[in-house]
Amino acid sequence: MAPIAVTHVVEAAKPSKTTGNRKSAVEETGESIRLAARAGEYTDQTSGVAPTYVQANLIVLPSQYASDFRLLCRRNPVPCPLLAESKEVGRWDQLQSWIQGVTGDQITKDLDIRNDISKYMVYENGNLTKSHCHNVEAEWTEDHVGFLIGCSYSFETALTAAGLLPAHTAHGRNVPMYRTKIPLCPAGVFQHSTYVVSMRPYRRRDIEKVRGITRPYVATHGEPIDWGWDAVERLGIQDLSRPEYGEAPIATDGSPLVRGMGIEDDELVPVFWGCGVTPQEAIRRAKPEGTVIGHAPGHMLVLDIRDWDIIPKQEEIPI
Amino acid sequence: MAPIAVTHVVEAAKPSKTTGNRKSAVEETGESIRLAARAGEYTDQTSGVAPTYVQANLIVLPSQYASDFRLLCRRNPVPCPLLAESKEVGRWDQLQSWIQGVTGDQITKDLDIRNDISKYMVYENGNLTKSHCHNVEAEWTEDHVGFLIGCSYSFETALTAAGLLPAHTAHGRNVPMYRTKIPLCPAGVFQHSTYVVSMRPYRRRDIEKVRGITRPYVATHGEPIDWGWDAVERLGIQDLSRPEYGEAPIATDGSPLVRGMGIEDDELVPVFWGCGVTPQEAIRRAKPEGTVIGHAPGHMLVLDIRDWDIIPKQEEIPI
Predict the structure, then answer these.
(1) Which of residues 239-298 of A touch B (CB under 8 A)?
(2) Which domains does chain A have, with CATH numbers?
(3) Could you tell me the Gene Ontology terms of the biological process aspect for this record (chains A, B) (predicted)?
């Protein structure tokens, strides 16, 4: 493919975009967003919402696949950092935490996994059967286990604070996400799947700074997995202007954020992070029997814990 | 490349091969092998040695790279499962364990990282300067940190017990190891490196059994990352008969273990696991300043802990 470059970047912090029918930015917490989604009052995506509150990707599986999925996360912690799961099979209201020093109750005091995300996806035998539905009460059974995976929105606050506001946030859009050819390490039934990545454009000279800021966020994908125009080919991305998930990189005025041009040291380049939509790709590949539920990409579960609660100390890296 | 197949396989358990000048197989423990290597009496590779004693890959780095290397392991736990590291910077005799429920003293009661491996590799500024040397006393400094990475030899005992003796063990050879094009997730200075894999041929009908047996060994690479003839191309391996590390798959009578032939369901296929030589490839890529030490591929540090000590329980999978 011809190289393309991103034409817009906003480095200064800006007020967060309009996000549907929330009452006021000052009231936003993880709980307030969950309760609003549960009441059907919050229906938007969640990029930039409730800053510093950790957001999570969701996968809900029949219990027979729980062990393999847990192993998939363990073997692929960059795209699939496991934060928590249902405390017991069938529990949609309580979590077991996988974050050291954090309890399930601290992650979400008041939880209904079936209702607290603004939009869901439903798969039957690995095939998408419902897209962007508002709750999954009818789909949830006593045999389901919910898994929460870290989300890169968590480090966007830190990037913004450092003067590196992500372009998609500046333009009030969902982050673009792409299928890649980078293989996941298989785990049981989950085979032959590949990484999904999110993309944020940054100036080449800022890349080491961007890497350094996101590096400690190991529970929410950490530092980028690749960057630069060469990375587009290495990752096997077909067309940067047509992401498989999220929204194309287009500015609020409708102008494209990407255009054909050469590469200069001082130009913007795409930077790619592991993405928590990866497990949904794995579901499509593995085609597990029965009903699987995920969040709609960009529509995350917003938690009670804060970004700083999930940065591990050095002494917390056991096998 | 043309598909090639492995012509020999041995499924029955066999006595371990002749392994240099060890006195007797019945006396073999991790400690006895370490002390023999320290005394210059054990100089061979360690596949099939001291069965059930965990073996480890070694990387020794200047302290300024320790943090990035720890993160590299954390982000790539399949090729780089971190078992332990020097208890403090400069310590070659005591370990800090990263295995839950196991202390450093339990991993090795009597240790001299500079002498207890039969053969070492030395890199200066990322370039190999010494190959297969017997000790690294002269190279070790007070600024060095040693890291131990799990080794796939640990699950070979379990495979053998299940009637799936690895072909290289049956033929008294080192396991073949190959460079691949599968990227590691970068961490700090460690960028643009790729997986190294080990290969063991198995019958196609045995692959699910092989996967199941090795799956629990998450601290020693776990289940295979890929398998079958298609995998050779997916991994970007140029020539299966010419591994970059270890020994070519050739039988004791000199006949090749690989030959050109078509693929049949009932034929042997190559099965690939993540390999602890991966960090040495990362060193060659990153070219860290100063002296880096590794084990010679196949010549591992044999520990006091046993294979069953490193199989984690389900409740031990924190972020």
Answers:
(1) 274
(2) 4-13+155-274 (3.30.2040.10), 25-152+287-307 (3.40.1640.10)
(3) glutamate metabolic process
